[in-house]
Amino acid sequence: MLDFSTVLALVILTVGAACSLKDVRISLATSLLALAIVLAAAVSTPQLFMYVLLVIAIGVLTVFSMSVKENQMSGIDYALVALITVITVYVAYTSDIAFVLASFVIASVPTYALIFVSTDGKPPHVDVAIKYIAFMVLATVLFIIGTLLLVYSSSVKDTALYTLGFVMLILGLGMEVGCAPMHEWVPDVFSAADPLPLSVIASITKIVPFIAAYKILLLTSLPQLSNLTLFVAFIAVISMFTGNIGALTAKETGRILAYSTVANMGYIIATLAVITSKNFLYLAFAGALLQLIVNAFGKASFFASIKTDGCSRPLMYVLALSFIGLPPLMGFWSKFFILTSLVGAGLVWLAFLLIVNSAISIPYYLRIARNLAKDTVPGKVTAIALVASAAMLITVLPPNWFINIAKMVIGGV
Amino acid sequence: MMLLYVLLLPFVVTFLTPLMKPRLATAVSAVAFLIPFAYTIYGLASGLVVKIPVADVVHPIGRFYILGDQVSFSFALAICIVSAMVALYSLPYMAHRFEEMGRELESEYRKYIFFYNLYATSMLWLVFSGNFIMLYIFLEISLLASFLLIYMYGYGDRRRVATLYFVWTHIAGMLALIGFLMTAAANGSLAFDAIAKIGFVAWLLIFLGMIIKLPGLGPHVWLPWAHAEAPTPVSALLSPLTVGLGAYVILRAYLISPWFIKAYTMPIFVYGVVSSIYAGFMVFRQNDYKRLLAFSTISQMGYCLIAFGLGTYGIMAVIIQYISHAFGKAILFMTAGGIIANYHGLRDITKMGGMHEYIPTISNAALLGFMNLGGILTVGMFGEFFILKGVVDTFGLDISTILAVVFVFIISGLYSFYTYKRIYCGTPAGYEKVKVNRLLDTPLFIIGIVSILLIFPPLAAILLNAVKAVIAKVAIATIGGVAP
Is the pLDDT of residue B208 over 70? Predict the structure, then answer.
């Protein structure tokens, strides 16, 4: 059912993008239609429906954030964003390594075009775009080679090769999403490029790489894996500190958001250290996935707000407080799941460092909210931020259902 | 089930009051806390213990349930009456504050009353939480609401002070959270009735977190800033109610697994005495009325630390000390606010003197407040009595510990009346006599009267019997408790 509708959605997106040369609105309509088809297909798997709904919501928000201002590729960009969204849904359903890898590539490549987006007839920042693409290509190659090495070495039980594959996979993943010390591209791109494509690049594209990494590591796991998780923990710690200290000292909002992304990716990659603990794996993955969703909603709204020089005050504060992790907002539960799984797996020191970092992050999230807050003006950006803030509030009751989603996504693997 | 409805009342009112006019919103808020107040007295008198299941959370966290026992009711008693009275007091005070900030009363008051009620309600729910994570959630909500109130309406460099407050108390909460999570991993649940034992590291983290919140000497740096620069009605909740909740969390952990406090009685006792004496001396040096009261809070919270180590009577003292400090400090912060509102931001004690001439009602209320702090003829008397009883029970007739505690009490009494003399007596400083708004003094007297009524029957009997019921529980926990 989902396979069929995914193909259908891809066809519709292609046709829509082609027709957009005639009228941009056609592409907008077909993109939304494609997302609606995928959502309708997801009804047949009610266990995953909430995940699909949240991802589609992020997808629709990012499509709308691309439409805040006309750009030179208006029309095609909607289709590209919708394509990434469809793949983000699809990757949760598949457990075939080839499809997982294909999803990883498909979620990454459309951003190579999106990064060139510029508005108001200004020339695109080609140097920044080239830098971004160079890093992404390197990351993708590392990830793919790492995966292949993992697959091969797990079948022949070669531990040395397995270690190499694992390290390459993690480095590729880290570079793709922007974990320190492979985060070089993040601050430059985030502060120089146009905010509109960044609302896509900083948000929804981060989800697929992590799901892919989880699935690949679980499919190819060897007993060796438990010795390697310490490597991930170190990357996580470096990333958290680099990100938070960088954000604390940055001035422009775009740069603060860039470093905040580095820090958030640190929190998320930390959960990979729990991957060998049978009891807490699902909790860790649930935390990671929920944090990715919080990050996606928040970053999409923040970047869209930068484009219009601000957005409604209460909405900005709700999003910032969710990032800080105040209950009962969604950002609390994601961090809470991550912390619980870390403590449960015996990584108390890592949990402790995460908490130190979450305290460091308070001042700069408040600064982001203050920089972007202004009196309410009805408009597209306010609508985007409103939906994102509403999503942060759906977890007023403890989100147990999310653990079941996590089990469904990686349980079959 | 009755308890659930009583607790839901302020929660619902929180969301309704922003829709009302300021006067109505204030009245409704006060009533919404007075009804739970009446219920807590009923709960204390009838020895009620209720458990209402709320939700089932994922595996290591366990059930969320509402727990109404004698400890909860005792703490709720103070929270309800102070919240109700400060709500009444908020109206004239915040009208003055908004005027000073050049903002419009009606629209600003909607925001204010919403966060005020959210803040008070979250504290009320906190003491009825039956699961550490539920408790943590309300701790953070109360932090958020109080932070926003300081951030929006505070004095001085309010944004910086609010952030300072947020960072410190967030670290405190998060440290405790790791402690809770470690307990969860070891016990498979965080429901109060399902935890067998809290391990060493977990206890240490919870204790350290709550020491920041309480605060003890050392991590107390944030408190004088936050409490002095907050708008006064918020100070009148922060200082009396919120910081003491640190003691509540330690008390809950103690009732479940008391070994940590028992093993480290002496260091905790000494730390409490040192904090209390240090902060007591600092009070003499302050010239800002609100900052002075903030230091006095640190000194008073030292009492709680002292009391923790003192066995069963110490636990009685912790509860009574919380109530008496809440009453006293709420009254005093409101008197400080009364002077600020009537004399255009007057906070400097060196410019006061003989204020009794100009604002006799506020001055009399302040006397009641200082009597609470000093433990004279108010419920604070019981607190001091039980601490001394606990000292004698724990250390025997050891003259040095008794002297240390008596010295702590004497300093509190001294700075209380020294401050009273500096502000309200002596040569009049030459201000105009003003007509004080009824809502700026009546609520203070109501709290004062409740405080005095609590040392006479029947209320005294009700409170002490309820607290004794807690003692019985401690005794059981001690027998069944596990050594480290």
Answer: yes
Q: Render pLDDT for B392-435 as a digit per residue (tens, 0 to 9).
A: 888 888 888 899 999 999 999 999 999 999 999 988 888 888 88
Look up the ipTM and state it.
Answer: 0.79
Q: Which tokens belong to B28?
A: 């409704």
Question: What is the distance between the alpha carbons of residues B311 and B315, in angstroms, rounded to a whole number?
Answer: 7
A155–chain B nearest CA distance, Å: 34
CA–CA min distance A228, chain B (Å): 23
Range of the domain at B331: 2-480
Cα atoms in the 13 Å half-sphere on the side-chain side of B419: 35
Contact B182, B205 (CB under 8 A): yes
Domain range list for chain A: 2-411
Reported pTM: 0.87
CA distances from B38 to B34, B45, B78, B244 (A): 6, 11, 11, 22
User: Which two three-digit tokens encode residue B252?
Assistant: 């809950």
Q: Which residues of A, range 57-116, sit inside 8 Å of B by Cβ?
A: none
The β-bridge partners of B51 are B67
Q: Are B369 and B415 in contact (CB under 8 A)?
A: no
* Total domain count, chain B: 1
Paired tokens of A408: 């469904």
* Whole-number Å distance between alpha carbons of A396 and A322: 12
Nearest to B376 by CA among B364, B387, B384, B388: B384
Coil, helix or strand for A222? Answer: coil
Tokens of A87: 């793949």
Is residue B201 within 8 angstroms of chain A, CB to CB?
Answer: yes
Check CB contact under 8 Å for A327 and B58: no
